[in-house]
User: Fold these one by one.
Assistant:
Number 1:
Amino acid sequence: MVSQVVATSREKVCKTGPIVLLGAPGAGKGTQARKITEAYHIPQISTGDLLRENVAKGTSLGLAAKAVMDRGELVPDQLVCDMVAKRLLEPDCAQGFILDGFPRTVAQAEWLDNFLNGKLFEGHPCKRMPPIVIDIAVGYNQLLRRLTGRRSCPTCGRIYNIYLQSPRVPDVCDAEGTKLVQRKDDTEEVISERLKTYERQTLPLLEYYRTKGRLQTLDGDRDPDQVAAQTLQAIEHGHRL
Ligand code: AP5
């Protein structure tokens, strides 16, 4: 008789290890994270989405983050790291996960390395697997076009662009029929601040991961499917680094 084995999250094998998507605001991290989720069936953990959920619910984290996000600056490292720690310990992360928008400072990257190797992650199938780090590089003018043209579906989260990836019916989600919305921080003034914040606080991260031999940079100026093909290749290559 064949005995049935019910796998718990602890017994699962980590399929990909942690995947870190880096890139400026509008580089296409969210778009590519959704494609990786479809290919590998692992969750997308977007710190921007988690923070916006907290703002919408009016939690204490949301109250602390709102004004900072409205200005296009970064939420303090400790608040974001605590939020990520809680999320990574949920059972759906057992086979791997995609970090979209995290880390964003060298301090966050150091925290992540310690967390993945530390006590709280003991017994997790992805423990001690070094992250696969993918930087999506896109030129400045293209970033501006992507951010000012972005619209998303409040029901399913699907992302569109009025200039580059428009829905079939203007301003309506193809899948849900819901009216699309524009993010509050996608105004020209806040976009300019977000891009400055990226240069000042996030660009140094590239050097951090380059020094560790983990950084892979993709040409993000191509169309989303071409970028996705490069992304999936980088994930396969990342296992061999
Ligand atoms: P967050 O939500 O992470 O915003 P972001 O990093 O500024 O990135 P975006 O979501 O704007 O862009 P994306 O790269 O995901 O591009 P997308 O795929 O949507 O963070 C928001 C705020 O939260 C931060 O400013 C900060 O305050 C706070 N925060 C978040 N994480 C934090 C952290 N770790 N620490 C501290 N604070 C934190 O695509 C953009 C558009 O381009 C879309 O319209 C899309 O359709 C289009 N597009 C995408 N790819 C292509 C392509 N290849 N060709 C043509 N169009 C494309």
Number 2:
Amino acid sequence: MVVLDGKEVSNKVRASLIPRIEKFHEKVGRPPHLTVVIVGDDKASHVYVRNKKIACEKLGMTSSIHALPDTATQNELNTLLRELNNDAKVDGILVQFPLPKHLSSDEVLSVVSPEKDADGLTFKSLGYFFAGKPIVRPCTPEGVMTILKHYNIEVEGKRVVVVGRSNIVGKPMAHMLTEANATVTICHSKTKNLSQYTKEADLVVVAAGKAGLLGKEDFKKDAVVIDVGMHGSGQGGKLCGDVRFEELNGWVAAATPVPGGVGPMTITTLLQNTCLLAEKRARLF
Ligand code: NAD
């Protein structure tokens, strides 16, 4: 079984961004800039936000963090987002979810401009994307496509099952694979006899958010398995996915591990999207 190494792919993509960042800097007089907005004091979210800032700076991009208190109102948040939409020095905006309960993520997804939406998940961005005219593509499924390309895994004409139908992963994943000419079936929480579908597939992308949901018996021999799931409380408190990875060796052709599979690609695609948005606004190509 080939272990699809998301860290390796991620390093390669990040290295390819450096000359683009340098070129942008040279032409525009500053590097691409990602702004992250966080509300409240959820510790894990603050760690994610800091990691994104460090990742930007390692590549020579810049990043700023707008931390609003738990007491921030929707109006204050919307006002900040509109200011950032209009700030010429900001290329990408990312709002860290989840928000405190009194705030609406739908409003955030309506207010952030698609020209600056580094995550590719606002309603307008998704509209352009599903219409086949993406400005940028949603990070996690785009990261999966990059892994497949890196390992020369052809999807055209293949039978693919995507498990999950969220706006963040399942739906855009199924759309990207359809655009790549696969024949795609979407399974979800109301699918009866999930295994019957996954066992027929050449490629299965699992994004159900259920730790250890699928194992060897759910895949056909020599299938490719991509595990998007991420859970902090697997056996012994270790990070694990939706797939029982340890069962797969000797049965499937290739699979992503958790950690070290899809996860590293999500943040890398965020950096890539920020570069792309910066380049598009500066009309560098
Ligand atoms: P979600 O809860 O919004 O959606 C889960 C989807 O799975 C739903 O559409 C649901 O219908 C389906 N589902 C749930 N139980 C099922 C079952 N038993 N059988 C079939 N389908 C089932 O979650 P999400 O935001 O799409 O995330 C999915 C998983 O991916 C989570 O574990 C999340 O942590 C992870 N994730 C990882 C990354 C990453 O960077 N690696 C990024 C985003 C999400």
Number 3:
Amino acid sequence: MMIIMHPGASRQQVKDVVVCIKDQGLSPHIIEGVERTVIGAVGDSRGISPDVFSTLPGVESVVRISHPYKLASREFKAEDSVFPLDGFSIGGKEIAIIAGPCSVESRDQLLEIAQAVRQAGAHALRGGVFKPRTSPYAFQGLGEEGLEYLAEARQLTGMPVVAEVMSVAQIEAMVKYVDILQVGARNMQNYPLLRALGEARLPVLLKRGMSATVEELLMSAEYILAGGNDRVILCERGIRTFETATRNTTDINAVPVLKSLTHLPVILDPSHSTGYFEFVTAVARAAVAAGADGLIVEVHSDPAHALSDGHQSLKPEMFSEMVRQVEAVAAAVGRCLAPVRNAAQG
Ligand code: PEP
Ligand code: MN
């Protein structure tokens, strides 16, 4: 339920509504708008009459949210959420590009790629250190050693860093090093992990599960939001279909569908969506044309020898060309790329 306060409602009236929400066994989530305050009353409200709240002083109206996800819905918050990061924002008019290797493989590899993607116009650096590999015999990532290299790359280039968290136990170490915690497709419905991330103080980049519906993705985001972390970035990364010509099938529909259902930023991963570097640039262009707020792209300076996902990694010069093309598409749809601060350092 959403409790919409009168524009002139006092602080005390807002407080009284919050107390009443808690008394009903629901949890309050306050949004302070320019004109008025809106309070979400989240939880199982099936047996609760809206009159419980509508009769309180200062309350203008009470609306039930029709979707099963509440805090994530546009009904709860009409304006796009914008999350400022170091040097750029995600979710506004500007498009953000996150790029880097699938896995952090060594200090030299990461620093070289970090500088190359920064030079080409990336805003944030990606690099996995805990890797969810299909085979237990495949490279599993460098772990904490890799986190140190990510922190060094951030220092060198000024870019915030993104890395995947696979378990609750990893969160504590990761928050010391990274700026955005990525939840991979395989963990989209790892509810204990989502709950723990609700308490984390970092933005979460939540990737869509390979067989998850848009609604299931939004329900997973709701777990994080309900835990008190309001910074969730959604990522379409391709879904499993009967098609075998590509690694996954890019659900381009998901971009405008998500943008209509939620205020959260929506980005697209053209690397895992396609699985082949030859198709990455075309799908990146399509994502921006469809209204995505950003991209997360795998880049490697020596894809043939990459320890994971080399076949879908762009070389830095291809990435640079992708950024140029995406910039042109952004302009065509009335948007622009976020400016790159301190590019000279990179
Ligand atoms: C990745 O980003 O390297 C990754 C493993 O992605 P996904 O979870 O989408 O498969
Ligand atoms: Mn990968």
Number 4:
Amino acid sequence: MSKRVTVFGTGYLGATHAACMAEIGHEVLGVDIDAAKIAKLEAGEVPFYEPGLDEVLKRNIEAGRLRFTTSYEEAAAWGDIHFLGVGTPQRRGEYAADLRFVNSVVEKLAPLVTKPAVIFGKSTVPVGTAANLGELARELSPAGEGLEVAWNPEFLREGFAVEDTLRPDRLVLGVDRDRPGRAEEVLREIYAPILELGMPFIVTDLATAELVKVAANSFLATKISFINAMAELCEAAGADVTVLADAIGHDKRIGRKFLNAGVGFGGGCLPKDIRAFMARAGELGAEHALTFLREVDNINMRRRTRMVEISRELVGGSLLGSRVAVLGAAFKPDSDDVRDSPALNVAGQLQLQGATVNVFDPKAMENARREFPTLGYSASTEEACQGADLVLVVTEWKQFRELVPADLNKIVRRKRIFDGRNCIDPQVWRAAGWTYRGLGRP
Ligand code: UGA
């Protein structure tokens, strides 16, 4: 049955959630304080790159099921089911998460809620946040105890956001065990078309739901750093980490996914989530439980430095005066997100050491230019590689994976390619007279 829902925050998470809730038949109002973003969305334009999302957005706007607003008054009056999907970035100069946006939604929304309603938090937050927000909501709302706060963490991946929202591996809901309310019943109704597909629906307390999310991201980060640590060993021993990953990945208990060694993880989630988790553990007096995450972070950051070192070796010991093509700027393919992107971090370090750097990315150019305005940018792979002494592949976009030596043979000054994602075939390049380097490969 169709319900009226609101979604606060229209970033990667919120905009996708709003569009997908409309896609499964609900009447949705997306809310954001950023008027420019709202204007774009109203015009049927996704303010970032996410495959497939623009069609879902347009289709549902046209069907009249999806609208956007900057007005909290309108949102509070619209319905009694509110999703909260605003960002929780890393605090400047600290490991902890910045909760100002989640707090602000509740501070502004709760006083406007006069009848029983549920707020479902989706943002990634430090454990304990949901309980605090519940208290705040009850205090500020004329509905008092009638305003419930529950937590429904989101596990979507950028690049697969629509698919992950409509067909998630599992759904998790944390409810306030001290105040039995309507949250579970309401969410079962909202997600009925998704639950019909038969995925697990796990209902638990607020703290467990909050922890599920950060535990999942910590595990993924650990898996990547594990294989990158193996890559360091492979480099020292002259072994091949890609074969090693395939071989251990056949063990179903280990699994091959998230065992791609390379320049490491970046993005708006994994790096800041493991740091916020360590900070929160410290506050709870359980920091020892997570000291391993510091090492996970260290291994990850070391990959970036290692890429710069190997690049320097490849151009003959000094980057001064060398031309380096950097293929990729996004933190991963099929995204235009450059938050904590290893690609741009490496490009920046190379430039600081004297290289002339030319970056090309199929989708992330605008975001990259904004974050790193002093790097050199090119309009195509060919332009970036013009006269290059070294070509780096740092984001494994399909068009880079499919590059063949003939595409670049006549363009570069020196035939050297450094594959920071182990995503191209060394044999093909070596056979064409190129020097190929990967990470963790002989
Ligand atoms: C991650 C999680 O995968 C999602 O489940 C979660 O919902 C999301 O964070 C979030 O918290 O919002 P995402 O940041 O979109 O999703 O990206 P991932 O696909 O997890 O990749 C993260 C980084 O790890 C990328 O830089 C990627 O290149 C890198 N990576 C991934 C590797 O270096 N090796 C791998 O084998 C896999």
